[in-house]
Amino acid sequence: MKEYNITVSSGQSNIFCGEGAFASRAPLIPRERVFIVTDSNVSALYRALIDSTFGGAPAYVLPAGEGSKNRTQLFKILSAMFDAGATRSTTLVALGGGVVGDIAGLAASLYMRGVPVVQIPTTLLAQVDSSVGGKTAIDFRGIKNIVGAFCQPREVIVDPLFLKTLPAREVRCGLGEIIKYGALNGDILRKLSANMKNLTSQDFLSDITFDCIAHKAAVVCADERDLGGSRKTLNLGHTTGHAFELYYGRKSHGEYVLIGMYYELFIACKLGVCSPEYAAALVKLIKSVIRVPSYADASTAARGAKHDKKNSDTANISLILPQSPGVCRELTLGADEYCGYIRECSRAVAAKEWL
Ligand SMILES: NC(=O)c1ccc[n+]([C@@H]2O[C@H](COP(=O)([O-])OP(=O)(O)OC[C@H]3O[C@@H](n4cnc5c(N)ncnc54)[C@H](O)[C@@H]3O)[C@@H](O)[C@H]2O)c1
Question: Is residue 138 a contact partner of residue 17, using CB atoms and an 8 Å limit?
């Protein structure tokens, strides 16, 4: 088991990662002061483990899926905590994927102006990314993560034991964020490229999870509140990915991150931000995980990017573009220009004219 620490002005977050992390850390949370938030799939799969670890603790079970990241479910969690007699010394345990982690973290930041939260991520995506760093949110008015708060988890327990039940598609979603880290970190990119045929093996995923968490922890320590610039880089692929996710909604978050990265790589090449060779190396990784679609109405879908939190106004779109291994660059395009590139990329995909 490895341990990482995030020390920021709002406190310290300890991350325990590796085989045995759950068995050694979860029983240390005083079970008489625990409130659990999980989802219907995780609750069904891990009922026995939840009962033996937290036996008798009150819980709220969300319907599984992104559709639950809304204000109705947020207030249901808060009501359930109130009904269960939760106090300021209650620890909220968020046991699930990124949806559970995001909404439960927000509930923890609101209840009595804040109770401690322990994140126990059960999807690959949540283990390598969303459970670490304290960003919490719900979707609102059709915009992803637009209402939220920073709430550093007191502890994050990352155990590969949960990945044994994860469907292959959810593993692909996690690889979406992992490949994003490849574009942000040359060492991660080298490992990914050297293990292209092996990306879903348990050993590889366990090892790369350490690297992604170490990278994210360092970024969060440097820029907890997403103010100085370095945390923005973690949004690579997300501007277009979020816009497509909200407009089409048929795939999952991690899949749209990969599709968004592909479309934004096209823009980076067009603008000369990155070389065709570097774009080809990243596209090869993306295509080893997912088929990139073209969309007849891609530029309409891309309009949703005007609500992205990185933008300073809705007429301009801020993008994080890959430049070279481990280096990316923020660039702002007019909304029309950005949507034009997205249309052009979609046509190039349909005509098989780009990578
Ligand atoms: N806060 C952040 O920094 C951050 C970063 C990246 C993504 N996110 C958010 O994370 C969310 C996506 O997370 P996700 O991909 O984990 O989605 P998710 O939470 O919806 O989980 C995906 C599916 O896997 C199921 N599942 C969870 N654990 C399982 C297990 N061990 N075995 C079998 N099935 C299991 C869930 O029930 C769900 O059906 C999005 O809402 C995204 O916005 C947040």
Answer: no
